[in-house]
Amino acid sequence: MKQHVITVTLAMTLALPAAAEEQHGTLVIAGGALSSATMDVYETFVNSVDSDEVRIGIVPAATGSINKNFIQLQEIFSQLGVSKNHVVLLPLAVKDDKKTKDTDESTWVANGNDTQLANDVKKLNAIWFVGGDQTLITKVLLNKDGTDTEVLGSIREVFHNGGVIGGTSAGAAIMSETMIAGGNSTGALFEGFKQDYTSMDEQEYGPVVTRKGVNFFTYGTIDQHFDRKARLGRLIVSLLEQADSQPGYGVDEGTAMVVKNDIATVVGQGGVTVVDVSSAKHAHNQYPLKASNIRLSYLQPGDEYNLSSHVYKSRPKSYKTVGHEYFDVPSASVSGIMSSNRNLDEFIGFNLLDNKSATQAVSWALDGKNQGVRLTFSQDEKTQGYWSQDITADVYSFEHLKLSIEPISVQFND
């Protein structure tokens, strides 16, 4: 890890040199639930700053626990060599932090157009967005007509000058043009969309809610908490109703997708699911969803994905599985906690792409009444799986997996 020696405070920081031409920086898009076991995400964020003098601004707008999050991040970045004086809290918030008696942070809601704050932001070279409710971030950083506030304009300038923009959970959700604000996979697959959004609770149930994001990530739509919250269904539904057919990128918890010069890599404990609906067929606005020819890829740490050409490059010392399958077991269905290999990479790796007996793998979603959808994963000549080993752990990734979704009727008898 390179060391960052800080010798001046933020107020004394020299002006940034003018770039000869517009340059984009780095995005660190974290899927949430970062912990002491995933410090490599924060380390990557710090080390992506192309300067020995790292100056980080913390945007706390998504949360009401502002002071707690800020102190925690100051300590984390201090451990990584950044002076605490160079980790500053940006007064951008919607909710009051009840534990700070002398400040009402809810009065910061209009600070997106504070000219002095916008000028101060330009002195930074890294911005970190705290998790929580993504709609609160956009409430502060976007004007009512959807245009940039002054502060958001300054954050874009930091990025275009080679700075680093990072965020976790809600701070990841805002990164794309289309921001997924609420809903879960079951609600999306059976009901589609709804317009109203009243609280963070709606992130966990019901139809999909989308809003305008800030579009730092211009290659498609971001979703987060992707593995634990099983958000594949809601991302697919969100993508199918968009006109541009750009891919979706689902970032697992404890994981970050790092984007630099059109290349995406993965850092952390999980992976990134790439959802391609460019050739998918479906009935518009009809639910339960029926769709075919959806393509999925899954990236592990060490893999690379070109976001412009959509070319996947597997990690070193990984081996193709299709045509070299290790397992020979009956096809499996995954339906819940009584099933093995519930995570997507394990489900596809163990049950299908490294299994000579299987031509498909099936999973199910039920609405709790009499409806269900069957998700059928299959392979063709475009599909490939990759296996590697981390000490004794099997690690699977894949590209161009086919997925079809079909409504079914379900009857439960006592």
From TrEMBL:
<dbReference type="GO" id="GO:0004180">
    <property type="term" value="F:carboxypeptidase activity"/>
</dbReference>
<dbReference type="Pfam" id="PF03575">
    <property type="entry name" value="Peptidase_S51"/>
</dbReference>
<keyword id="KW-0121">Carboxypeptidase</keyword>
<dbReference type="GO" id="GO:0006508">
    <property type="term" value="P:proteolysis"/>
</dbReference>
<dbReference type="GO" id="GO:0008241">
    <property type="term" value="F:peptidyl-dipeptidase activity"/>
</dbReference>
<comment type="function">
    <text>Exopeptidase that catalyzes the hydrolytic cleavage of multi-L-arginyl-poly-L-aspartic acid (cyanophycin; a water-insoluble reserve polymer) into aspartate-arginine dipeptides.</text>
</comment>
<dbReference type="GO" id="GO:0008236">
    <property type="term" value="F:serine-type peptidase activity"/>
</dbReference>
<keyword id="KW-0645">Protease</keyword>
<feature type="signal peptide">
    <location>
        <begin position="1"/>
        <end position="20"/>
    </location>
</feature>
<keyword id="KW-0732">Signal</keyword>
<protein>
    <recommendedName>
        <fullName>Cyanophycinase</fullName>
        <ecNumber>3.4.15.6</ecNumber>
    </recommendedName>
</protein>
<dbReference type="InterPro" id="IPR005320">
    <property type="entry name" value="Peptidase_S51"/>
</dbReference>
<comment type="similarity">
    <text>Belongs to the peptidase S51 family.</text>
</comment>
<dbReference type="InterPro" id="IPR011811">
    <property type="entry name" value="Peptidase_S51_cyanophycinase"/>
</dbReference>
<keyword id="KW-0378">Hydrolase</keyword>
<keyword id="KW-0720">Serine protease</keyword>
<dbReference type="InterPro" id="IPR029062">
    <property type="entry name" value="Class_I_gatase-like"/>
</dbReference>
